[in-house]
């Protein structure tokens, strides 16, 4: 009897662990009026000189969030807020040459040791809002500062036994591994950036 309870518990735990490693992302474009008011107010002072501002509602299988995507100073930004309008993170797309050499070498070593074959599709420099001070995080992100609290979020296509799959792999500012999630794209009604 104890063995059956232990076995059932093990299967439940494994199922939860596998679910946590999969990101079923679905984004829908929304009007600015549907974007959380407090998020729009925090973002407004930083929107001067932006082009193509778009607002999205995202569901990743676990939570609902809102994103504002735009182009500013030749960089493509994605600013994400939770459903209450609190800043989660600010990201922008970069190239591998924008990452310090030693950090990128550490990232490459991790990817090579954990994936048979892979190709980097996109790299984002991420400024998570850990302090709760959204204005300070946004100011830092728009200055493009490389600080110890930033992350690198890398989308890769890698080969496994079933074929090619996409993963979102997150590393800290030193290139140390934080998290990897398999991406399951649901469908988009916009250009990804």
Automatic annotation (TrEMBL):
Cross-referenced Gene3D superfamilies: 3.40.1420.30
Organism superkingdom: Bacteria
Protein name: PepSY domain-containing protein
Annotated source species: Croceitalea marina
Species classification: Bacteria, Pseudomonadati, Bacteroidota, Flavobacteriia, Flavobacteriales
